[in-house]
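Q: Structure tokens for this one, please.
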Amino acid sequence: MESVLRYSRSSIVHNPVLVGQVIDFLIVSTGKKYLDLTVGAGGHSLEIIKRGGRVLGIDLDPEILARARQVLGNQATLVEGNYKDADLIAKENGFEKLDGILLDLGLSSFQLDSPERGFSFRFDAPLDMRMSPELGVRAVDLVNGLNVGELEELFMKLGEEKQARRIAKEIVGSRVDHKITTTTELAEIVKKVKKVSFGKHIHPATQVFQALRIAVNDELNNLREVLPKASSLLGKDGRLVVISFHSLEDRIVKDFFKSSSELKVLTEKPITASEEEVGLNPRSRSAKMRVAEKLST
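A: Here is the predicted structure, written as tokens:
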């Protein structure tokens, strides 16, 4: 998600991405049941509710869930939890044989705009990056606790960072004198290795920050775990809509859709944002939406 952000804070827009396409593919109508696995600030869910849909929303982040409650009020059932536990949460709330499920994997701009959360290099903040305070490991623990080889593997596998080894060595060398504790410190270390390219809007530390966030929150394993559960929660002809923001997520979704005997793929190629939407909402630039439909129950 960081990769879609320009350096100016004014470029951040608090809008749900691909909202029109999401509503169209979910075929939202009165009385139908929808599960929003990452409800965030409630943008997508609000549009579903406006069209008469019933919504169960899940989010691991208590701060962002509080915002969703302000937006949605009592019009939706909201639960603080990990979307990997969607099957249990849905059953507890009487949401089964669903008409549609949405999984928007993007980091909320509200989270990016909260300096104390440590998600963004745009602020000088503690290296945290946890979606929930209940999670144990923080980014600062990984940055200061892993050796060169472990950091290199982390940055390569979860950040697809080509200069992973050089960055890992620079980090380990830098922490000899003092512990690396802030986002600014880490970003400056990465910038020593990766020079800023003129005309590019992608910060040199983007992939390193992505890798740390994914590791701290175990995002890819959670995604692998929830996809078959989401499929099982759908009723016949129910639709699963997934919006990803980097190739690691998109590959997992694409492979699952293709391999599932329960689902029919409706999007041969991922749906992306129009130039107009990208202009209004830069975070949509990296969004890729894939949709599949349940064949049987």
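A few notes: Residues 30 and 53 are 5 Å apart (CA to CA). Confidence is low (pLDDT under 50) at residues 1-13.
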